[in-house]
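Can't attach files on this board, so I'm pasting raw text. These are the components:
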Amino acid sequence: MSIWSYANPVKFLTLSARVQPVLWVLSMACVATGLIWGFFGTPQDYRQGATVKIIYLHVPAALMAINAWFMMLVASLIWLIRRHHVSALAAKAAAPVGVVMTVIALLTGAIWGQPMWGTWWAWDPRLTSFLILFLFYLGYIALWEAIEDPDTAADLTSVLCLVGSVFAVLSRYAVQFWNQGLHQGTSVPVATGGRSVDDVFFYPLVICMIGFGLLFVALVFYRTGTEIRLRRAAALRARAGRAA
Amino acid sequence: MRALLIRDLTLALRAGGGFGLGLAFFLIVTVLVPFSVGPQAELLQLIAPGVLWLGALLACLLSLDRLLALDFEDGTLDLLLTAPLPLEGALSVKALAHWLTTGLPLVLAAPVLGVLLNLAPAGYLWLVVSLAVGTPALSVIGCFGAALTVGIKRGGLLLSLLVLPLYVPTLIFGAEVARRGAGGQEVATPLLMLAGITCAVIALMPFASAAVLRMGLR
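---
Top answer:
Structure tokens for the assembled complex are below.
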């Protein structure tokens, strides 16, 4: 059985109904464990004090904000190449989740930056790139809303997502060139295997990241299901209108 | 292709509005800046390159919805879709016509407006060069935005929301060239980056524009 069989909405909904409870429980457990451990079980940083604990919201949210766009990119490609409606709807469903993650990352960053850097906002490359990512999300959602025919909307937003990805990467490098930053380097560099965070902070952080990832998947499943049912309702209404 | 170019140019020149409007907008933005930040010469000199770039970018943006919308309304686009000329080529020509009627006048007007903003003497050359290299990219990217929103009623505001984030890299490198030029610094790196973006966009963007136009008008 190949993965493409889940392009059938009925099969997808069955799978999603089976997987969702597990995902919700797991993600909630991970987020709760990570946050409680992080907030109450770790020592305060010797220079940053208690403010360091916002990392348990900030880093996972930022991670998912980028990965949500990446998931939309893959889903858009699948839609453009294989024309599976579920894929297009999944991309549509992921966008608002991505926006919320971006906003959480920006807000927690501002709240942390105020006492640490002495400013809510700085035109630092990482911050600026995130703001630009936020604008891309807004444009993507606005385009979905603006077009009435669902297939055309899926086509156009998919191409926008592809072109937007290229320009988002381009903007990232342009912004880095434009202003050298204030933001510290990554806390969890996957490529090198090393890390700049102590073990005490690291484990709850990883649990939070896993939790946020699972939460994102659960939300996308849930929202895609809603979109499929909305599409069905619209089709039924159209058929009823034609019969009358 | 040449016929299409000539048609677009004549339409822009004779049908009123399109040609002078962008320039007038550029002028008025530049005039409004001293009113909003104050007339101190040093301050104006500091921000002049950035303001001129931003003004040119907005003037370009303003004229984008005319790029395809009028042709969509009178059916020319449907003809272009069925014409033997590839749609990619037709859109490249339309972007070129847009640049000739909007971008090029902006490039030529920029030094004059630079005087109003007390631009540093060393900056004029690099301002013109950066605008000349950068504005074609604005037209081509804008053509993609116009193709995305062509079938949408009241798409003007949406067009801005979609196109402005795509303008970020061009604006950054373009304004950087103008700023460094005005300060008498090395300009090669950002200028090459700007030229690279423009070339890549001219080469690739018409395919994306044509694709979305076919999807939108299906």
